[in-house]
Specification:
The protein is an alpha+beta fold. A five-stranded mixed sheet has the order 2-3-1-4-5. A hairpin with a 3-residue loop joins strand 2 and strand 3.
Length: 204
């Protein structure tokens, strides 16, 4: 079982691609090589495989924070979970359940919200998509400062708020406020819940 993420950049034409393209390429390169593992196509669309299904939501959150560090930008991401046929050299030519479900989520669910998931388990999908919708009430409204704080934390979860404040050249009280406004603790609770649900799914 694997996860395929299909997405596109919101408002990409309003910002010079030189600002955001290197950032997402850098994020993708931490996962694997193009074009087998990921590819950017049609200018602002992408597809990437996160082989460890448990990490797919975390990567989506990181990618959202990465892009929202740039004013006006955001991202839509559809996660598909399932099996795949590995006989391809370019991910955009891949096939199997994970690809089908990712495409289905992208074509249907992303009309209503910017992050969605589809798998063979409808109850799992319903719980996740409802939870995602609630989290997006905060995540879609991240400011540049909020996204920057979230990304600093996600890149090094063992770091302290004091160190993040120092990196951002702000006071600890300001760092605390940014953390609260970003809903970071609640979003990490969702990420933990997702991992628990995936564990149950994998052990069925």
């Amino acid at each position: 079982m694997t996860s395929i993420l299909t997405g596109d950049i919101i408002n990409s034409r309003e910002v010079d691609s030189n600002e955001w393209l290197p950032l997402i390429k850098s994020a993708f390169q931490t996962i694997g090589r193009s074009p087998k593992i990921w590819e950017i196509y049609r200018g602002d669309s992408f597809q990437i495989e996160i082989e460890n299904v448990k990490d797919s939501l975390l990567f989506a959150i990181k990618l959202k924070a990465t892009l929202k560090k740039i004013k006006k930008l955001d991202v839509r991401i559809a996660i598909g979970i399932g099996e795949k046929n590995d006989s391809y050299t370019n991910i955009t030519e891949g096939n199997g359940e994970a690809f089908i479900y990712s495409g289905l989520a992208f074509d249907t669910l992303l009309k209503k919200q910017n992050l969605a998931i589809t798998s063979s388990d409808k109850e799992f999908d319903s719980i996740c998509n409802t939870s995602f919708a609630l989290a997006l009430l905060t995540m879609d409204n991240w400011t540049v400062n909020s996204a920057d704080f979230v990304l600093k934390y996600l890149e090094n979860p063992s770091t302290t708020q004091k160190l993040i404040a120092k990196e951002l050249n702000i006071s600890e009280s300001s760092a605390s406020e940014r953390r609260k406004r970003a809903g970071l603790d609640e979003i990490m609770q969702l990420e933990n819940l997702y991992r628990e649900l995936i564990n149950k799914k994998l052990n069925q």
